[in-house]
Amino acid sequence: MPIPDSGRIRPYLATRGRTRPVQDIAIEALVSTTDAGRNHGIDPEPERDRILRLCHAPRSVAEIASLVSTPLGVARVLVADLEAEGLTRVADPHAAFHGSVEPARDLSVLERVRDGLRRL
Amino acid sequence: MASVDSEMSRGTQASQDALSVKIVVAGGFGVGKTTFVGSVSEIEPLRTEALMTDASTNVDDLSMLPEKRTTTVAMDFGRITLAEDLVLYLFGTPGQNRFWFMWDDITRGAIGAVVLVDTRRLADCFGAVDYVEQRGIPFLIALNAFDGVQQHTAEEVREALQLGPEVPFLVTDARDRESVKTVLVTLVEHAMSMVQQQHT
Known about the structure:
Number of helices of chain A: 7
Oligomer: heterodimer
Shape of chain B: globular
Distance between the termini of chain B: 53 Å
Largest sheet of chain B: 7 strands, mixed
Order of helices and strands of chain A: HEHHEHHEHH
């Protein structure tokens, strides 16, 4: 495989060559830095470090990809790695409701979304 | 860097156990999807990109473009924190309809889809309508009235798209916050009625 000569090489190095996510995290899944992540200090990999700082307030995977300037697939892998190390937690709406009613088809969730939109 | 830093203080006010849900904003290129998202989003719409690698593309097409081995597909999105424990994301689909692989990611688990239509370029929405209809995703048609001008009435468009009376049709102005809110509330209510029908 040819080595890309653009700046894009960085994200791939950061994910150790993996371009597929180890888990299929939803683009709207909310990522938060854990206490361990807050006490982690400066991570040597800039993308990881920025994710840990960004997610002191919960952020979706899509926001992370956008703000850290990596493609979505790379952001997913970075988030999955950080989660595996206990530095972030991922509230994935699909994973959480696996086997029960998915949130988008749960009437009580839909009612809350409707009422929230009306209040805007 | 500066943009990231300025965004640092602008995370959600949501708690760590918050639930996130999403609504898809679909339609042809230039129909006003990002404007629509921006009218209600609490953040400036952000852009995220996905890579379409060689494996998922037609090699014959790319062989003509040796330097373009990877195609980037962009989509814009916004965020609304509805409550401390509930965050709504609005995802615009990529303008170019051929990037269907992105649609699976965007629509998986979505509440539903707003299909934005410019009645001057009706055919631009056909692909989006087919996609959401075939997958049973709750959707409505929102006719974006550019400068208040509409070339076709809602009924003419409904007939052209061959959609039944159960699909809501609205006229909207993507620049107007109240108008966009009405579209979103209508979509959520439509999704609720589809859930209720399945239970009866």
